[in-house]
Design goal:
By secondary structure, the chain is mainly α. Helices cover 67% and strands 5% of the residues. It folds into two domains: 376 residues, no CATH class; 130 residues, no CATH class. Strand 3 and strand 4 form a beta hairpin.
């Protein structure tokens, strides 16, 4: 009798918990989860080197610098424009601002994943898939404001617009309008990062096939296809036209396209290791997606919508592989369709729904948390950055960060002597010949202008040692004195002052915390 009462009590407890869980809005679950797993990064200006540079470039843009001319990179203009609201706030609030912008995009993307899964009839996998996306971002270095964190929202929104509906028919203005809007979103995503190209090509071809399947004539297919292509290209064409009007089309074109083709590849062994790093977090998602596709085939549920979603996953993987050089965050665009396709597996497989996916969520939570903590220990924090900024000082004279973190330009407010502010552009071997300027000649030009302060970290893998040797020669020949070596995470950063500044006593705060 006692056992039966206990069992009934447990059943009532589970039922009550289920009612409470059902009463919590899905968006709130996703928001609180995202805050919980990303909060440790809030306010940290050195989460990742890429987003530091995006923030610095946006800050300089607001001060009148022209990207690709006054400050150089090969990312499209849209990415820097996206960062400008946060950059306008300066430090430290501007750092928190872009991180909150990224948080909002993560939550909205997860909500779109869940919504699409619901529309596909994969209700049981909707929330787990959305949570999986949030948690897996941290495993692949997506805890901050990497470009895919922002443009993933645009691509998933385009997919939601294209998802087939029961009443679709040829010539329906609403359906064609959704297709046009979807391709415009892809065009906007391209102006955040060009890696969306292969996803956009797939969606364009899928739209053409959809027109044909619905009975459109060849003329209508071609005409609508031209419209879809035009809207996808429009943002990039506008950017090119603006630079042409400014007389800087060649600079824009080379930075955005030519330099990508000129960039060298890393050594083969480095590429293998990098690809392995990217594929490790993706592997479980791809396996479960494959199982989901197999179950759909077995049950006869390979609908046009399912074909769209799984085709999107394949195109995202093609885009990942084709670019040929990899960092962990290159996996981020694939995580949206991969997480979404996992919903198909969870919805159709009882074991997957009850055991496999919950276990994967726990693993993702643990692995993501450890990844973020390890990355922070390796890259540093706001206090360490402030120490180095104090050692550099905020007085007159320009700064040259030869190797280290570009956020030092923002933290000190010092001017730069070269458009190549991202340190790896002038110091990394694979960038040699892919900048539109000779690395050695640019270093010579910088020192001819006598930077007041030079910053250089310890040697790193892939560095062009001939450039380091040239910088070291200049430092000795021109009488630069080391103000100190300071840790940023695990990396020693040395600050050198020009002769006319080296006699000045460094700020006490900086001197008190050398590495």
């Amino acid at each position: 009798m006692a056992t039966r009462i206990a069992a009934l009590g447990l059943a009532e407890h589970k039922a009550g918990a289920g009612v409470v869980a059902a009463a919590v809005p899905r968006w709130l679950v996703l928001l609180m989860t995202a805050i919980a797993v990303r909060a440790v990064t809030f306010g940290n200006p050195v989460v990742a080197v890429d987003e530091q540079f995006y923030w610095v470039t946006a800050r300089r843009l607001l001060q009148g610098a022209l990207p690709f001319v006054d400050i150089w990179d090969r990312k499209p203009i849209g990415l820097f424009l996206l960062y400008t609201p946060a950059a306008a706030l300066g430090l430290p609030w501007g750092i928190l601002a872009y991180q909150l912008m990224a948080l909002a995009c993560v939550v909205l993307t997860a909500m779109m994943i869940a919504r699409i899964a619901d529309r596909m009839g994969w209700h049981a996998g909707a929330l787990p898939a959305a949570l999986l996306y949030i948690l897996m971002l941290n495993v692949a270095d997506g805890q901050g404001g990497q470009a895919p964190v922002f443009y993933n929202l645009l691509t998933v929104s385009a997919i939601a617009l294209l998802l087939p509906r029961a009443g679709d028919r040829d010539g329906d203005p609403a359906r064609v309008g959704r297709g046009l809007l979807a391709m415009l979103l892809i065009g906007l995503a391209l102006q955040v990062k060009y890696t969306v190209l292969f996803e956009g090509l797939f969606l364009g071809l899928w739209l053409l096939r959809r027109e044909a399947v619905l009975g459109a004539s060849l003329v209508h297919v071609l005409r609508r296809g031209a419209g879809y292509a035009a809207l996808a290209m429009l943002p990039t064409l506008v950017a090119g036209a603006v630079y042409a009007r400014l007389g800087q089309f060649d600079a824009w074109f080379y930075a955005n396209f030519g330099s990508i083709l000129d960039r060298k590849s890393d050594p083969w062994l480095d590429l293998v290791g990098a690809f392995f790093e990217v594929m490790v977090p993706l592997a479980p998602l791809l396996v479960l997606s494959g199982l989901g596709w197999r179950r759909l085939a077995r049950d006869g549920n390979r609908t046009p919508g399912a074909a769209l979603l799984f085709g999107w996953l394949v195109s995202a993987m093609v885009g990942l592989i084709v670019f040929g050089s990899w960092f962990p965050h290159y996996a981020l665009p694939v995580m949206v369709p991969a997480s979404l396709c996992c919903a198909a597996y969870a919805a159709q497989d009882r074991t997957g729904r009850r055991i496999v996916l919950p276990l994967l969520l726990v693993v993702a939570l643990v692995a993501g948390t450890l990844s973020v903590l390890v990355a922070q220990a390796k890259r540093g924090n706001a206090a360490q950055l402030a120490t180095i900024a104090d050692a550099i000082g905020r007085g007159p004279g320009c700064l040259y960060v030869h190797s280290g973190d570009s956020i030092l330009y923002g933290a000190t407010g010092r001017c730069a002597l070269s458009p190549w502010l991202f340190p790896s552009h002038l110091s990394r071997e694979r960038e040699n010949g892919a900048l539109g300027v000779d690395q050695m000649a640019e270093v010579d030009r910088i020192f001819a202008k006598r930077p007041a302060v030079v910053v250089m970290r310890t040697p790193f893998r892939g560095e062009r040692l001939a450039i380091r040797a040239r910088v070291t020669q200049y430092l000795h020949r021109m009488g630069y004195a080391a103000r100190g070596t300071y840790l940023l995470g695990r990396v020693p950063i040395t600050v050198y002052a020009a002769p006319d500044l080296s006699a000045a006593e460094p700020p006490r705060r900086a001197a008190s915390r050398p590495a």
